[in-house]
Hints:
- By secondary structure, the protein is α+β, with helices and mostly antiparallel strands.
- It is 42% helix and 23% strand.
- It has 3 helices and 4 strands.
- A 4-stranded mixed β-sheet has the order 1-2-4-3, sandwiched between helices.
- It is globular and about 35 Å long.
- 23% of the residues are buried.
- The model has no long low-confidence stretch (mean pLDDT 93).
Amino acid sequence: xxxxxxxxxxxxxxHSINPVVYIGFKGVTESVINEIxxxxxxxxxxxxxxxxxxxxxxxxxxxxxxxxxxxxxxxxVGKLLVIFRAKKETSILxx
Length: 95
């Protein structure tokens, strides 16, 4: 579980990154989860852009994604989601 200082640090880091996964109107599918896993393994901190217009559905998608890939939600602003999963060894991002 991330503490507030770690979340603030990761939010600041996420400003400079671009979305690497795009979720269309079909929602969170198996292929989307696989793509998120690949990117989390490579980068630890990723930004996801979701097309859904409903804030409740975007929040539900964020929760589902985090459960499926064992990641922590960092930020949810509009249609952008930011998640973090530390690498198995040691995290390169967290202080």
